[in-house]
Design brief:
By secondary structure, the chain is mainly alpha-helical. It has 30 helices and six strands. The strands form three sheets. The chain has a two-stranded antiparallel sheet. A hairpin with a 5-residue loop joins strand 2 and strand 3. Keywords: TPR repeat.
C-alpha cells in the first residue's frame, strides 16, 4: 500500500517557517521550483484549488517533505548574486545547488562572500553618509524662511552650522547624489511600486557608480518584466563588451605564459595544472560573455528607444543616443553599439538571428544595386570597422558586396580618389582579394592592383614635390609677411565711391615729405629686391610635370599657384620675363572665384596688390597690352571682393 503524499500550500509552508514577507517570498521560491533543475518533483498534483490557512485560494502546493528544501531556498535568497548566474544554455540550472555540492568551488565561493561583504560595507557607508547629510542640510536651509540660491551661498550656510563635519568632506557630490536615487528606487521596489523601468533606472544608477555586477542583476530584472527594454539591453551589451575585452586580454596573457602553445598536454607541476585550469575557465568566460554581448547588442539595437514623433517615411525614428531618451542617463550611441556588434559577430551568430540582424543592417544602411552607404552620416568609420561591415554584408548578400567592390574599384579611375590613403591596403586584404577574385575575376583584380600600385607610386612623387614646394614657400613666407604688414600699416584702401565724396587731395596728404615714410619706402624696396632674388626657383615649379598634370584639380599641389602669382607680378614690376609672366597672369586670373579664394589674394592687403600693379604700369613695357590690362583689373577686383567678403563676417 503506497503512502499518500501530504500536500501543503507553499505560502503556508513559508509562513509556518517564520518568514515575515511570506507571500512575496513564496512567489520567488515557486518560480525556482517550477523552472530550475528537477525541483518540480516537490510539486503535488491537486485536482482542486487548495485553500490556504488564511482562507485564500492557492493552486501551488508542495509535499510536506520539501520543508527543509523550501527553508533552504528562502535562506539562500539574499545570496543569489554570490553564486553568479547560470551558464549560457543552462537557464534551468540552479547555480547554488551545483556550487555547494562541489568542494572545489569552496575557494571561489569564499572569495565571492568576502567581496559581497565588502560591497555591503561600502553600501552601508554610503547610506550612512547620506543619512548624516540630511540633518546637516536641514540645519543649514531651514534657518531662513527664504533662500535665494542665485545670490546666497549654501556653502557658507552649511559651514555656519555648528558641530558638522568640514565642507571639504562634501566634495563627492555626484556619487552621493546617485546613491540617494538608488535608495529611492530600491524603496519603490520594496513597496511593490516598481515596473521594468524602475529596475532599469536602478541598474543605470549602479552602473554609473561602478557597481557593475549589481547593475547586471537589475537590468536582467527589467528585461524579465519587459523583453523590449532596449535601454537595459543596450547597456548590458556595453557592460559585456568591456568584460569580454578584459577576458580576452587575460586569455592572451595566459597563452603567453606557454609561448602561445595552448594547453599543456601533460602537466606536471602545480603551476602547469593551474595554467590549464585558468585557460579553461577564461575560455569558458570568453565564450559566455560573447554570447551575452551578441544577444543584448542585437536586442538593444532592435528595441532602441525612439522619438515620440514619426518620420514621414514611416521608418523607426531611433534617438541617436540613449540619453536623448527621457528614460535614460547613459551616454551611449546607437552607432557605437552597431560598431561593437560588427567587431564581435560571427557567421554562426548571424545564422542564428538572421532576420533580426538584417533588420538592424537596413536601419543603418541604404542598399541598392550600387552597393551600400550609411543613412545617417556614420562615414567616420575607421578602416577596421569598414572591413567588419563588408564581412557582415557578405553574409547579408553576396550581390551587394560584389556591387560595393565594383563601386569602390570604379571610383579610383576618376576624381583622383585613387590617391585616398588606405585604398591599396584595403584591396590587398585577403578577405577582399578572395571575394574580388571569386566573383569579379582574377584578371580584373590583377589590373586593379596594377592601377593601385602605380597610383601609390604617383602619390609618393606628389608628396615629395609637395614637400619641396612647402620648403620653398616657408623660405619666402616671412618676407612676404613683412611686406604685407608694411602695406597694412599704410593708409588703407579707399573705394572709388568714397573718393567721389571728397577732394582727391584729401587722400594724398604729402606723405612723401614724411621722412619716416620715405625710410619705409626704401626698406620695402630692399625687401622687394631680396624677394626677387629668393623667388628665382619658381619656374622649375610650374614646369614640373606634376603641376602641369594636376593644376586646377582636387589634388593641386599647395602653394605653387600663390608662389607663381607673386613671382609673376614681382618680375613684371621690374620688366623681367615679360612674355612668360604675361601668359601666366592671363592663365591664373581666368577663374575669378578661384582667384578670390587664393591665399595670395585673400591674405594680401589690397594696398600690396595695388602697389605691384602700379609698378607694372610704371616699369613693364607691355603694361598697356589689352590682355595685361584685363588681367590686372581682374586681379584688383578679386582682391577687393576678397576683402569685402572678409569684412562681411563681422557685420
Amino acid at each position: 500500500m503506497s503512502k499518500k503524499i501530504q500536500s501543503i500550500a507553499l505560502t503556508d509552508m513559508v509562513k509556518n517557517l517564520g518568514y515575515r514577507d511570506y507571500a512575496i517570498l513564496a512567489n520567488k521560491i515557486r518560480d525556482i521550483i517550477k523552472e530550475k533543475e528537477d525541483f518540480n518533483k516537490y510539486i503535488t498534483e491537486e485536482i482542486n484549488t487548495f485553500t490556504r490557512a488564511d482562507g485564500r485560494p492557492e493552486k501551488f502546493c508542495v509535499t510536506s517533505e520539501s520543508k527543509i528544501f523550501v527553508d533552504n531556498l528562502a535562506i539562500l535568497m539574499p545570496f543569489h548574486s554570490v553564486f553568479g548566474k547560470a551558464k549560457t544554455g543552462e537557464k534551468n540550472s540552479y547555480t547554488p545547488l551545483r556550487i555547494l555540492k562541489s568542494p572545489k568551488n569552496r575557494s571561489a565561493l569564499k572569495d565571492s562572500l568576502i567581496e559581497q561583504k565588502q560591497k555591503f560595507e561600502r553600501n552601508l557607508a554610503k547610506t550612512q553618509r547620506s543619512l548624516t547629510e540630511i540633518p546637516m542640510f536641514a540645519s543649514a536651509v531651514l534657518i531662513d524662511s527664504s533662500i535665494d540660491i542665485e545670490k546666497q551661498s549654501l556653502r557658507e550656510m552649511i559651514n555656519a552650522v555648528p558641530n558638522q563635519y568640514p565642507l571639504s568632506d562634501l566634495k563627492d557630490r555626484y556619487s552621493i547624489g546617485i546613491w540617494s536615487d538608488i535608495i529611492s528606487l530600491q524603496e519603490d521596489i520594496d513597496n511593490q511600486q516598481a515596473d521594468n523601468t524602475t529596475y532599469q533606472r536602478l541598474g543605470e544608477k549602479l552602473f554609473l557608480i561602478g557597481e557593475i555586477d549589481e547593475a547586471i542583476v537589475e537590468f536582467d530584472r527589467a528585461i524579465e518584466l519587459n523583453t523590449k527594454n532596449g535601454i537595459a539591453q543596450a547597456t548590458l551589451a556595453l557592460i559585456y563588451h568591456k568584460k569580454l575585452v578584459r577576458s580576452k586580454k587575460t586569455l592572451h596573457s595566459l597563452h603567453a605564459q606557454n609561448d602561445y602553445g595552448g594547453y599543456i598536454l601533460n602537466p606536471i607541476s602545480s603551476e602547469e595544472h593551474w595554467l590549464n585550469d585558468s585557460i579553461d575557465l577564461t575560455q569558458e568566460d570568453v565564450s559566455q560573455l560573447h554570447s551575452l554581448l551578441i544577444e543584448n547588442a542585437i536586442d538593444g539595437l532592435l528595441n532602441w528607444p525612439q522619438h515620440d514623433y514619426r518620420p514621414l517615411n514611416g521608418n523607426k525614428n531611433y534617438v541617436p543616443n540613449l540619453n536623448n531618451s527621457r528614460f535614460s542617463d547613459i551616454e551611449f550611441s546607437r552607432a557605437k553599439l552597431f560598431f561593437i556588434l560588427l567587431e564581435n559577430i560571427s557567421s554562426k551568430d548571424y545564422e542564428e538571428r538572421k532576420t533580426s540582424i538584417n533588420e538592424i543592417i537596413e536601419s543603418f544602411l541604404s542598399i541598392d544595386e550600387n552597393g551600400y552607404c550609411f543613412l545617417y552620416g556614420y562615414s567616420h568609420m575607421n578602416p577596421k570597422h569598414d572591413l567588419y561591415l563588408l564581412s557582415l554584408m557578405s553574409l547579408y548578400s553576396t550581390d551587394v558586396v560584389i556591387a560595393e567592390l565594383k563601386k569602390r574599384a570604379s571610383n579610383i579611375h576618376y576624381d583622383f580618389n585613387v590617391y585616398k590613403k588606405g585604398t591599396l591596403e584595403f584591396f590587398s586584404l585577403p578577405f577582399v582579394e578572395y571575394f574580388y577574385c571569386k566573383y569579379i575575376g582574377d584578371d580584373s583584380y590583377f589590373e586593379l592592383m596594377n592601377t593601385l600600385i602605380s597610383a601609390q607610386y604617383e602619390q609618393a612623387k606628389i608628396d615629395n614635390f609637395q614637400s619641396k614646394v612647402t620648403i620653398f614657400y616657408a623660405r619666402i613666407s616671412p618676407l612676404l609677411n613683412k611686406i604685407s604688414n608694411h602695406f597694412t600699416n599704410l593708409t588703407p584702401y579707399v573705394s572709388e565711391e568714397i573718393k567721389d565724396l571728397f577732394d582727391a587731395d584729401f587722400f594724398s596728404q604729402e606723405q612723401h615729405e614724411n621722412e619716416y615714410h620715405l625710410s619705409k619706402i626704401i626698406k620695402i624696396n630692399e625687401h622687394f629686391d631680396y624677394l626677387n632674388n629668393e623667388i628665382q626657383g619658381w619656374i622649375n615649379l610650374i614646369n614640373n610635370p606634376l603641376w602641369i598634370r594636376y593644376s586646377d584639380t582636387s589634388i593641386e599641389i599647395n602653394y605653387v599657384r600663390r608662389i607663381t602669382i607673386y613671382a609673376a607680378l614681382l618680375e613684371l614690376s621690374v620688366n623681367k620675363n615679360i612674355e612668360t609672366n604675361l601668359t601666366l597672369i592671363i592663365q591664373l586670373t581666368e577663374n575669378k572665384q578661384k582667384l578670390i579664394s587664393d591665399v595670395c589674394v585673400s591674405d594680401s592687403p589690397i594696398e600690396f596688390i595695388l602697389h605691384l600693379t602700379d609698378k607694372i604700369k610704371e616699369n613693364c613695357c607691355l603694361s598697356k597690352h589689352p590682355a595685361m590690362t584685363h588681367s590686372l583689373t581682374l586681379l584688383i577686383e578679386a582682391s577687393i571682393e576678397a576683402q569685402e567678403r572678409f569684412l562681411e563676417q563681422f557685420d
